[in-house]
Amino acid sequence: MKALSAGLVVVAAALASPQLVRTASDRDQTPVGIAKPWMMPRTADGKPDLQGTWNNATLTQLERPEGSSLVMSADEAARMEKGFSERVERLSEASDPNRPAPPKGGDGSTGAAGNVGGYNNFWIDPGDRVARVNGEYRRSLIVDPPNGRVPTPTPEARKRTQQRLALNKGRGQYDHPEMRPLAERCLMSFGSNAGPPMLPNYFYNNNYQIVQTKDHVMILVEMVHDVRVIRIGGERLPKQVRRWTGDSIGRWEGDTLVVETTNFHPMQSFRGASENLKVTERFTRTGPETILYKFTIEDPTTFTAPWSGEVPFNRTDELIYEYACHEGNYALSNVLSGERSRETREAERKKPQQ
Amino acid sequence: MRTTAFTVLAGLVLLAATVPVRGHHAFGAEFDPDAPIRLQGKVVKLEWVNPHAWIHIDVKKPDGTNEVWMVEGGTPNTLLRRGLTRDSLTVGTELVVDGYQTKDHSLKRANGRDVTFTDGRKMFMGSSGTGAPKDGRDPVDGAKKPPPPK
Asked: Is the dihedral of CA A175, A178, A180, A186 positive or negative?
């Protein structure tokens, strides 16, 4: 019993002071209560060790409203985080057990829930904190251009979009499995989760595992189990070889891993980008719990200017679970058979009365 | 207060006002807004799979016969990280579900817009402070939470 209460005191002290957690394991070398300065962990070949499981979920959005500043005050960040946690509490409250079916004609939801609602909030696990970089609370992940917005598309990009729409004219979005989005077909991650750039999806499972050797860095993305192998100092693939998540070549600039990716698969179009898309990522281990992930997007045939962002990746002790998307993907067949069924009903409704 | 999946997703949309929120699929493409449904019945089977979990419940129809309905949920991975597994919801548990039927009416499937026990409690609790990684940390301020608002 005594041992148990002593243990509880240790746990309580550890919870109260994260600094003590670190010193407790090294108490032979360091006086209790004094934190040792953090040392960059390194692999056998002396490079910064980026290995482990990381999470990039956050409340901070990619873009921010026009006219707002990149940095918000600590008060504003606290309000945002409090607002989020209160919303979760609210959504956990009980419902009326005798509630009727929802309204006919839809419940007015927008976005992914498209007028039929989605599912309960307890399934969802987005970020619950404002992104912090260099001690600043950030209002957007984009840091350049200074307005925190994705630059406007070029006339050429607009023309490409028009041409694509014209090509698909007369073909319905539900006419063929290949007309459906990549995520629905379980081919690629939600949004740009796998990237590059690796952006949070604001829904769930924003987890990454990094494994590193002298010549390669592997990034496993939980959704949808996408793996990217970065070759350190490798030679670029021929221009016509285009792969999911592109062709990534890395190099070390001091203690920062710099990765340049081109040769994206034509179907993995990041925000309407063309085959000329180049994404440069910079991974810097900034502490025991953090990698600062910076990215720059360049595609002069799509965006009127290059643009860059910063996303904190935070260490997690959680496991990455397999996201075997095909196994339970009833949604794709439900969407397609649903449309056929709707067409039949429509045709019957239009049939002249006997 | 009545809480619905509508408020869940409306909230999410507000939260993510500047980026297109993409789920695995658009719910409006799969379910029929003109076919709202309320289901009550006991769990007969759980498919704890990705991209979406499916809960099978046995529903008694007005004519006295029974029909098994499949109810679509979210990813089980987030629940696993909170220690909730397929065994956390046992076969035989009675649930109340409201949602919309698939556009293919022959399927007997619906989205689990709001899934509760028969006393109205949510099947599980939300994710805040329940093991979600503490994102947004920065080495400058360690793992400190920002001060409470004034």
From this structure: positive
- Give the B window 92-131 contacts with A, CB below 8 Å: 96, 98-100, 102-107, 109, 111-129, 131
Question: Do residues B8 and A195 lie in contact, with contact meaning Cβ atoms separated by under 8 Å?
Answer: no
* Residues of chain B with C-beta less than 8 angstroms from the C-beta of A128: 127-129, 132, 135
Q: Which residues contact A170 (CB under 8 A, 6 or more apart)?
A: none
Q: Would you tell me how many other CB atoms lie within 10 Å of the CB of residue A275?
A: 16
Rounded (10°) CA dihedral A165, B21, B26, A170: 0
- Chain centroid offset of residue A231 CA: 22
Question: A183 and B50: CB-CB below 8 Å?
Answer: no
What tokens appear for A122 in the block?
């307890």
User: Is residue A304 predicted with pLDDT exceeding 90?
Assistant: yes
For residue A113, the chain B residue with the least C-alpha distance is B27
The per-residue pLDDT for range B14-62, each reduced to its tens digit, is: 332 222 334 577 888 999 999 999 999 999 999 999 999 999 999 999 9
ipTM of this complex: 0.84
Read off the tokens for A142.
Answer: 């984009």
Would an 8 Å CB–CB cutoff place B14 in contact with chain A? Answer: no
Closest alpha carbon within chain A to B126: A122
- Residue B61: DSSP 8-state: -
Residue B45 Cα distances to A14, B67, B82, B115, angstroms? 42, 13, 21, 15
| Bridge partners of residue A17, in order along the sequence | none
Measured between CB atoms, which of B52, B75, B122 is closest to A94?
B122
A18-25 and A2-16 helices, crossing angle to 10°: 120
List, in order, residues 6 or more apart from A284 with CB less than 8 Å away: A48, A255, A256, A257, A291, A292, A294
Report phi then psi at A83, rounded to 5. -60, -40
Tens digits of per-residue pLDDT, A109-168? 888 788 998 999 999 988 999 999 999 999 999 999 999 999 999 999 999 989 988 888
Tell me which residue in A120, A128, A135 faces B138 most closely, judged by beta carbons. Answer: A135
